[in-house]
Prior knowledge:
The chain is an all-alpha fold. Helix content is 75%, strand content 0%.
Amino acid sequence: MHDTVRLLGLDLPGLVSARQGAMRLVQEIVELVVQNKTAAELSAAASAFVSLHLRADSQLDMLQRLTKPDRPFASAARAQLKLMGYEDLCLRLEQGQEAA
Length: 100
């Protein structure tokens, strides 16, 4: 496996860094969504709830865009979501093809 990775150049520092950056971005967005949803649920003010809910929805949309098959490092983004237990947030491949 390491020979294949090396042969294909998948271990190049810039590529590894970019792939790790995509995975970190997914993790950060998921953490924000969880925080916003929790804050929204705890909020007593309806307007604050709506605002936080809309922000979380846009972050969920961003996560789905990151997992579209035509996006760079989409498989890394999907793998990170699965690792974090949020596989259901991944854009299904057939959805990505319909949106294209």
